[in-house]
Write a structure and sequence with these properties.
The chain folds into 3 domains: 10-62; 78-121; 149-309, Ribonuclease H-like superfamily/Ribonuclease H (Nucleotidyltransferase, domain 5), CATH 3.30.420. 47% of the residues lie in helices and 11% in strands. The chain has helices spanning 10-30, 33-40, 44-57, 78-91, 95-105, 112-121, 186-199, 217-225, 242-256, 264-280, 292-298, 304-309, and strands at 149-158, 161-170, 176-181, 206-209, 229-232. The chain has a 5-stranded mixed sheet, with helices on both faces.
Length: 310
């Protein structure tokens, strides 16, 4: 059985053109197999092989083929490949997260190389993101939830209007709290911290922010009154708040690119659903495929948001 066709390279095309000249020389000039073979320096067996291919398939038959069966019996079924492509386009996951997601929610296990092959064959390129500065050489490893929470603000444009997404992420559990505000000021920041305290199942020990005006002295004193330490990252070093910055890129790729909103109310409702999906359904690579909620559950900690919805 003939092997599967692959995308021809420039070398393959040149070889096919040489074979076509050989066959046309026989059909239009010499009309003699022996003279044609001597002229082109090939054997009669090779000549008849390409002649049969040409007569059966035309010029396409003169291209080289990948050796092996037309379809491997161990090849991933078409409906599984279609599922991989669908999830990739909908969620913009990489190969490793795709493997976790398919095994968790579709009971399908595919290795990372297999997924990469499927994406390559369907000509789905890697999603590129803006280059960021490398992080600090010495990275703090926070293992206890609540020890450190990174907070930042993402600007969101909605039909010519500017809104502000406040984001908090626990450095250990990667559990996130999201909220949309009309203004980015100290009042919004204080309200957001109260929301974070309600949703996180552990007491906050430290909040880390940049030097934005919304995180000014009044915000710092409010945290101190609650017994929470406020740390600001070095100026011009957003990589020091890398976890929350990276989560904003995830929001852009997997949330804001997928949905369109007409009103702030629609955005707030959708963001609450996205917060739940991120915390309870989306496999997290830093947690070895677990979700933030599962990480907390292993520590016998149940998030407040899960308690309220149970």
């Amino acid at each position: 059985m003939a092997g599967p066709r692959v995308r021809p390279t420039s070398t393959d095309i040149q070889k096919a053109r040489a074979r076509l000249r050989m066959i046309l020389h026989f059909k239009q000039v010499s009309r003699n197999v022996s003279r044609t073979c001597r002229f082109f320096g090939i054997s009669r067996t090779q000549f008849y092989y390409w002649l049969r291919r040409y007569d059966a398939e035309g010029r396409a038959g003169l291209l080289d083929r990948k050796p092996g069966p037309a379809r491997s019996p161990w090849r991933t079924p078409d409906h599984i490949e279609a599922l991989v492509v669908q999830v990739r386009r909908e969620r913009r996951y990489g190969a490793l997260r795709l493997s976790y997601f398919l095994e968790r929610y579709h009971r399908v296990y595919l290795s990372v190389p297999t997924i990469q092959r499927i994406l390559k064959e369907h000509r789905i390129n890697r999603f590129t993101s803006p280059r960021t500065r490398p992080g600090p050489k010495r990275r703090r490893i926070i293992r206890e939830p609540g020890r450190s929470v990174q907070v930042d603000v993402k600007h969101v444009r909605l039909r010519g209007r500017r809104l502000y997404q406040f984001t908090a992420i626990d450095e250990a559990a990667r559990y996130r709290v999201l909220q949309i505000y009309d203004h980015s000021n100290v009042r919004s920041a204080i309200e957001f911290i109260e929301l974070v305290r309600q949703k996180l199942p552990v007491a906050l020990e430290r909040v880390q922010t940049d030097h934005g005006s919304e995180f000014g002295s009044d915000f710092t004193w409010h945290l101190h009154d609650l017994g929470i330490q406020h740390t600001k990252i070095p100026p011009g070093c957003p990589e020091a708040n890398g976890k929350v910055e990276r989560s904003h890129r995830t929001d852009e790729d997997e949330f804001y690119r997928r949905y369109r909103f007409r009103t702030p109310e629609q955005l707030r409702a959708a963001l609450r659903r996205w917060e739940t999906e991120y915390n309870t359904r989306r496999p997290h690579l830093a947690l070895k495929g677990r979700t933030p909620a599962e990480f907390l559950a292993e520590l016998k900690i149940r998030p407040n948001s899960v308690r309220q919805s149970a």
